[in-house]
Amino acid sequence: MVVATSDVFRALGLSLALGLLVGLEREWAKDRVAGIRTFGLVTLAGALTGLMSELFGGWMVAASIASLTVIIWIGNVPKQGSNGADSGLTTEFAILIMFFAGLLAMVDRAVVAVVVSGAVMVLLQGKKPLHELVSRIGEEELRAIARLVLISLVILPVLPDQGYGYFEVFNPFRVWFMVVLIVGISLAAYLVAKYVGPHRGVLLSGVLGGLISSTATTASLSRQSMVPGAGTRLPALVVILSSTVVFARLVAEIFAVAPGAAWEMAPPFVAMLGWMSLVSGGCWWWSRQEFSTAVIREPPSELKSAVAFAGLYALVLFGVAVAKQHFGSAGLYAVAGISGLTDMDAITLSTASLVSRGHLEAATGWRVIMTGGAANLIFKAVLAMVLGSRAFAGKVAVLFALALGGMGLTVWLWPT
User: Fold this and answer.
1) Helical H segments across 107-229, by residue range
2) pLDDT tens digits, 386-396
3) 290 exposed, middle or buried (CB, 10 Å; 0-12, 13-18, 19+)?
4) What is the rounded distance in angstroms from the CA atom of residue 372 to the CA atom of residue 100?
5) Which of 63, 114, 237, 308 is the most buried (most CB within 10 A)?
6) In total, how many domains does the chain have?
C-alpha cells in the first residue's frame, strides 16, 4: 500500500505532538529516564516504524521493539546504580506505550493514538492525588470495592444474556446488572460521604441519603429524633431531600435500562423532581436555624444485600409479567404498590426493562412506577410515625402530603 506524502507528514506531526505532550509532564516531574525530547523521539520512532513496516514488512515492528527495550535498559543503568533511586517502571511503560501511539498514528488510527496519549499524560500527572487517594482507602473500603469488582467484573460477564421462564422475563445477565447498578451507586455515595464528610452541609446529606437509600435514611433519622433535645426540622429536611433525589435516580435508571422509551417515560418524573425540589426549598428556609446538626451515613451495601436485591428484582419482574397477562393494568399497579413500599429500584428497573422489550406501553410503565413511588412515600411516613417523635412525624407527614399531592396532580393532568 502506497501512503501519500501529505498523510505521512501529517502522521509524523501528530506523533511528535503527542510525544512532546507526554514528555512535557515527564520533564516537569524531572524524570531521570526520559523528558520532553526523548518522548518526542520515541513517538517519531513509532511512526517511522509503522511507515517502514508498510514498506519492508512486519518484522520491522519486532526489531524496533527489541531496539527500544535495549535503549530503555541502557538508560536505566545509571538509575539502578544510584542509592535510594525510585525503582518504579512508570516512565519505561509510558515510553513503550507512546512508541505504540506513534505507530498507531501512522497506520490511520489517529483517534486511538490521541486518546491513549491523553490517558497516559493524565495518569502520569495524577501520581500525587492517586497515591493520596489510595493511602486514604481503609480495609473496609477495600472490601467494598472488591465486592463491586466481584459482582461486576467476575460474575456478570459469565452470566447468560438470554431470557428464561415465563414470557422469558428472567434474564440472568440483566438481573445481575441491576445488582451491579445499585451496589455501584451505593458505594459511590458512601465514598463521597467518607472523604468529603457528613458535615459539609444538609444538601450533601440529603443527596447521599437519596443515593444510598431514602427508606433507610428515614428510619435512621426517625430513631435519632427520639433522642432528648434532638432537633426535628433538620432531620425532616434531610428526609425530604433524600426522597427528592430518589426521583433523579429513577430518571437515571429509566435512561439506563430503556433509553428508547425514556423520553416518554422520564418527563413525569422530571416534573416530580421539580415539585419535590420546591417543597425541599421551602423546608430548607424553614429549617435553617438547625443547620449545625450532623447526620450519620449508612455503610455501603454488603454482598448478601446485593443477592437479596437480585431475588427481589427477579420476583418483581415475574410478578409484573403475571399481573400484566392475567389481570391487566390493575394487577400491575398492585405489584407496584407492594414492591414500592420498601424499594423503588426493583419496580423501576423491572418495569423499564419490560417497556424496553415491548411488553408494556411506556404510558402505562411510568404510571406503574409512579404508583410504587406513592407507596414508598406512604411507607416512609409510617416509619416516621412508628420510629420517630411526634413532632418529627408530624413534619414528615406534612412534607410527604405535599409530595403526594403533586404526584396525584401529575398523574391526573399528564396527557395520555
Assistant:
1) 110-125, 127-136, 139-149, 172-196, 202-212, 214-224
2) 888 888 899 99
3) middle
4) 53
5) 237
6) 2
Residue 140 domain-assigned (yes or no):
no
Taking the C-alpha atoms of residue 413 and residue 100, their distance in angstroms, rounded to an integer, is 59
What number of other Cβ atoms are within 10 A of residue 416's Cβ? 5
Q: Are residues 90 and 162 in the same domain?
A: no
Distance CA 300, CA 151 (A): 14
Q: Give ∠ CA 379-383-385 in degrees, rounded to 5.
A: 115
- Residues 291, 202: Cα–Cα separation, whole Å: 7
Collapsing DSSP states into helix, strand and coil, what is residue 67?
Answer: helix
Residue 378 lies in a domain: yes
Same domain membership, residue 282 and residue 236: yes
Residue 251's nearest CA partner among 264, 239, 241 is: 264
> 29 in helix, strand or coil?
coil
> Residue 352 sits in which domain range?
146-413
Q: What is the pTM of this model?
A: 0.55
pLDDT tens profile 258-272: 888 889 999 999 999
Closest C-alpha among 318, 283, 347 to residue 163? 318
